[in-house]
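ARCHIVE RECORD
Type: protein–small molecule complex
Small molecule: zinc ion
Source of inputs: curated submission
Record status: active
Notes field left blank by submitter.
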Amino acid sequence: MKKLLLTLTMGLLLMGCAKNDNPFFETYKNKYGAPPFDQIKNEHYMPAFKEGIKQHQAEIDAIANNSEAPTFDNTIAALDFSGDLLKKVSSVFYNLYSADTNEGMDKIANEISPILSEHNDNLYLNEKLFARIQTLFDKKDSLGLNDEQLRLLEKYHRDFIRSGAALNPDQKEKLRQINKDLGLAELAFGQNVLDETNSYKKIVDKESDLAGLPESVRQAAAEAAKEAGEEGKWLFTTQKSSFIPVLQYGENRELRKELLMAYTTRADHNNAKDNKPVINKIMKLRTQKAQLLGFDTWADYKLDDTMAKTPKAVYDLLEQVWIPAVAKAKEEAADLQKLMDAEGKGEKLEPWDWWYYSEKLRKAKYDLDEEALKPYFKLENVRKGVFELASKLYGLKFEKLDSMPVYNPDVEVFKVTDANDSLIGILYTDYFPRAGKRAGAWMNNIVDQYKKEGINHRPIICNVGNFTKPTKDKPSLLSMDEVETLFHEFGHALHGLLTQCTYPSMSGTNVARDFVEMPSQFMENFCWEPEVMKTYAFHFKTGEVMPKELMDKIQKAGTFNQGFINTELLAASFLDMDYHMRKDTTNFDVTAFENASLAKMGMIPQIIVRYRSTYFNHIFSSDEYSAGYYSYTWAAVLDADAFQAFKETGDIFNQKVATDFRKKILERGDSEDPMKLYRDFRGADPNPDALLIKRGLK
Ligand SMILES: [Zn+2]
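STRUCTURE (tokenized, with ligand):
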């Protein structure tokens, strides 16, 4: 099998060489329209980007200069289906730029960022084009459009206004410059975080400093050291899978402190990678842009097209969860301090103690040791578990494809089909950390779903993670947090896979930011349910299913440490909002601002905000989640309430509710207002009680 694959790959490569072709310029020949990752090289990107922009611009000009009167088809639909080549190269480039980057790609990203932002402006600031959209918008109710088309027209109109289409020429020029500068500043932010994460290495050479660490953690650290040319020592990094186990189990308090401080001060040193000046630049540009577009603040601007709609609605929601969360965190801190007092060292609880003592408390209170659970969470089994869950809920089937080209040997490819064997889409999984992969976990579209000329084009979706790597003699065994993350990203993948929309810009996960986390967090609700655990929690050595008493313990410990988790998360949400409520565009002291924001909300000193400013990638490495980190909590209200719909039937796999959830939410993309979709599914407004109860806050 392997040999056949090799021959095939070589054949393709040779063909590529002879014709000296750029794979982006040809129709992908792989099955399911998958990109030929085995042939794509750095030198293919720039020519494809440039040609893609040229072709897209020609299409835009043709639409704008059309002598026929504007219609939905010749203007809105034409725009939505334009830019094929550009989409093709962008999706591959940005997927790999996050998951498998190299120095050459960093250069390309820097070079293409201002060009793309200019192209984007050429689209949204095109006066003739906007005039056509405005004409259609003014008579939208008499055009005989269906709901999806009407929403698409309204969306284009709003996006054009939000992008400056209604500004005067001077203002438009100013906006173009801001967009270009902002794109570069955000890029610099993300690169600084990545560089700082990759450059930190803590070498431990005394085994006694590893006291308390489980064997699997020592082994991974020893292998990492060996890879770095430090055989016989142990290496730790600021990757979560490396340092979190030290925080949980390491008896050496100094080591815990050193690693946590290294993690929480990334890009916060006065050197070339310092993100404090970058934040100043970003904030100034964002505030200027919002004000140019007629909003008071960036938060007002960003929230205008979300489910929440206003900063007030966001602060109101955050307060509702924050107050009980901090109260709970204070109780938890007191419990942990008691454990420390019992040791008689006279130490006071500090942030680098929280994981360590909460792990002890978890053992004492619930007799639950995370390390004892890990053998039951072999990555391949957990993945099989989510596949089986999708099969139980929606009848989906997953088949591994061995002959698809991948960009890294860690990547695996699956064909997803419906109960009636029709193709749903293709799923790539890429689960292990490596240099060149950004921290965290995410889902991406490689190819969008849409319907055109009677053909329903099915999507290609990627799930990326940074899960615990297999070692010489152990497979990848996940922590509870990693199991939840895998379920979460798979939830995004299902949202991307099951979509049944007509227009590409509305399909799959192209929904409001504060709605997009709902289908992903919804899946997390299933992972500790005994009926679900029975399908994936097998001991990696014996194959035995996790004993019932261990499952019961997990259930019982479900609300453990929730004060900490919620406080950490909500503090980051408040910090994000506070930044983006700024009206002032002068320089400011980032550290002082962060401290003042945390003090104002009443943060407790034993907990560090989940993301400190200098590595808060969500809000500073792109616009996407700026004034949007609250979305996780907003969506959590929805996902807990949605799961309640299953629980109320007494059957978490209830077919009627599952079909409703699929048809009314997962298949609908952005084809309808998300609050309307939700009400249609639930028959009522979302109720926050389910969330507060689930997290032990009520
Ligand atoms: Zn997510």
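CURATOR ANNOTATION: The CA atoms of residues 15 and 21 lie 9 Å apart.
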